[in-house]
Specification:
globular, iron, alpha+beta, 1-aminocyclopropane-1-carboxylate oxidase homolog 8-like, 371 residues, metal-binding, four-stranded antiparallel beta sheet, Jelly Rolls, 10 helices, DIOX_N, 14 strands, 31% helix, oxidoreductase, eight-stranded mixed beta sheet
Length: 371
């Protein structure tokens, strides 16, 4: 390392430490009246221009939206309706790795309240937030800015609250008063929804409807409340760098401001449109592994927020993430044939999780486990 490189590295570390010590996150910078994006957030311009947008008017390049016919309430409907849903969700998980669901059974007022609760947490008095500021994921609830703040090449323009909601749920004392109650209510609703989704995905794989549930795919839930403040120079940074999710499945509630993009067919960054009342569902790395690449965990990112109001998103990841679990996972045996041999070796959540924790967010945890 030459002296110039060493100086840059030292200056960046100083910036990161100073930023971390404020415990105010990106919102604290915005509230201070900052008019330029600090160097520690600046992303190399090729990252923002690394792939073309799709041709205008190409209707084939649109994230699928699937009507769940009332969510859990549709279960008693006819078999043709269910078969149609199985086919649609299986195709979306295979070809896209992303889809939106409407008529999913979660009341609109619950969606609105959890969105407002997350916004309220981030916009409350800074001193009230600071007691949650931590990178210690043994705690039930933490708040920080950038999970990978000290390992990424550039910090992202967002703050995050993170709570472990299942299987060992937090108490009311573990959660912030401003949003704890609605977080617990939303958890119950989203866990009912994900059980239905895993049933449909199991059937799409040709398995018993309870197969993925019996593998504990829906057992563990981590809820993230992301806050993307308005950015004075949104072309210089990102809200969240490209990444895949370390989960079996992720369910995301977008707020009033868009910005989520999906990398489709290794060719285009596609905007995920805001559909009123919809939830975004995406396949995670763990589901890609156990489905032996039948379902795809695809890269996605969030562009920096250029709107006048903050962008809010509530992401529920069905995964252990930073918690230890000795269970072994590998490609589902019923899916393996001579024509479809296993593409991954068996591994544990602990090993996968340690791999995820040691890498940058923008690289998949699956590569080291490929056969």
């Amino acid at each position: 390392m030459d002296s110039t490189t060493a100086t840059i590295a030292t200056d960046r570390l100083t910036q990161l430490k100073s930023f971390e010590e404020t415990m105010g996150g990106v919102k604290g910078l915005v509230d201070s009246g900052i008019s330029e994006v600090p160097a520690m957030f600046r992303t190399a311009s090729p990252v923002l221009l690394e792939s073309p947008k799709p041709p205008l008017g190409d209707s084939q390049l649109t994230i699928p939206t699937i009507d769940l016919k009332g969510g859990v309430y549709f279960k008693n409907q006819d078999s043709d309706t269910r078969r149609s849903l199985v086919d649609k969700i299986g195709e979306a998980a295979d070809k896209w790795g992303f889809f939106q669901v409407v008529n999913h059974g979660i009341p609109l007022d619950v969606l609105e309240k959890v969105n407002e609760g997350v916004r309220g947490f981030h916009e409350q008095d800074a001193e009230l937030k600071k007691r949650f500021y931590s990178r210690d994921h043994t705690r039930k609830m933490v708040y920080y800015s950038n999970y990978d703040l000290f390992t990424s090449q550039a910090a992202s323009w967002r703050d995050t609250m993170c709570a472990y909601m299942a299987p060992d749920p937090p108490t009311s004392e573990d959660l912030p008063p401003i949003c704890g109650k609605i977080m617990m209510e939303y958890k119950k609703e989203v866990m009912k929804l994900v059980e239905l989704l895993f049933e449909l995905l199991s059937e799409a794989l040709g398995l018993n409807p309870k197969h993925l549930k019996d593998m504990d795919c829906s057992k563990s839930l981590v809820m993230f409340g992301h806050y993307y403040p308005p950015c004075p120079q949104p072309d210089l940074t990102l809200g969240l760098v490209k990444h895949t999710d370390f989960s079996f499945l992720s369910i995301v509630l977008q707020g009033n401001v868009g910005g989520l993009q999906v990398f489709h067919d290794d060719q285009y960054w596609l905007d995920v449109p805001r559909v009123p009342g919809a939830l975004v569902v995406n396949v995670g790395d763990l589901l890609q592994l156990i489905s032996n690449d039948k379902f795809r965990s695809v890269e996605h990112r969030v562009i920096a927020n250029g709107a006048a109001e903050p962008r809010i998103s509530v992401a529920c990841l069905f995964s252990i993430v930073m918690k230890e679990d000795p269970r072994v996972y590998g490609p589902i045996k019923e899916l393996i044939t001579e024509q479809n041999p296993p593409k991954y070796r068996d591994t544990t959540i602990v090993e996968l999780s340690s791999m995820y924790g040691s890498k940058g967010v923008n690289t998949s945890a699956l590569h080291p486990f490929k056969i």
